[in-house]
Amino acid sequence: MKLTNILFNKKIKESAEKIDFNKASQIITNTTINKLMNQKLLFMRYSIFAIIIIIEILLASTLSGWVVSSPIFALMEWLVILLTIIYFFKIISKCFSEHYLTRFYSCCSIIFSIVSCIFSLGLWFVLAAFSSGIKEEYLDQILLQTIITVVVAILVGYAIYKYLQYLAIKELADFDETLKVPLWGRVVDKSVIYGIVIVIGGMQVYRMNKFWLLNDSSWVSTLLVPIAQTVLGAIIIILLIALPVRFFYPEFVKSYLLQKYAEEFRKEHGMTEKEWYTE
């Protein structure tokens, strides 16, 4: 399972490999297997994929003459679309030979689509900065936009990777009680749980006091409002990253163990090879 090899660091991989079938079967019950074989996410994965592709096509179109004409830059964006389509269907094609991991591959394809969109947006901002030509008076602006875009894209991608890794460690802790779950991940989890309430509450407070705040020149509006906006903005960014990753987390550890002991689990739950692998 290449995806787990990418996500698992040495410590996680060693801990996962130590789990024998008896230990795995205590956690991976019939309910867990039915959940992993569930096809309820089929519509969701194709819907999200279609939305992502439409967004990427619109981005590529702006460089293909819709807004500016930059054939080379447009080709790069269209190449991203092509690779997204290829790898998306490559991931979900695994479901046809590993039916017992249907939900795993569906979740992986959804997260891949989201990451592809982030990369495509980052690339578009960089290419858009250079699409009108490099003029000396705009050079500083172009370089600043490029640096900010690259840094933000890398940070967002790294944040998704680390959060997925945290969720894998948290899942692995169900099998190994000696494993310590990172504190920062728990903080993010709490932020996800309470973040929606804070954002909605903050927006309502701002909406009800907007007229007063805009016409007030005291330290309340000049200092507290920008701080509150920054905090709310940070929470929204965390939610936008963490919510889809948390909701579509592919349960890497259980899926890894299920694949490792595929035949043992199939026989234990009395399924035929057709039901388990291809149906």
TrEMBL record:
Keywords: Membrane, Transmembrane, Transmembrane helix. It comes from the Bacteria. The chain crosses the membrane at residues 43-66, 72-92, 104-130, 142-161, 187-206, 226-249. This is DUF975 family protein.
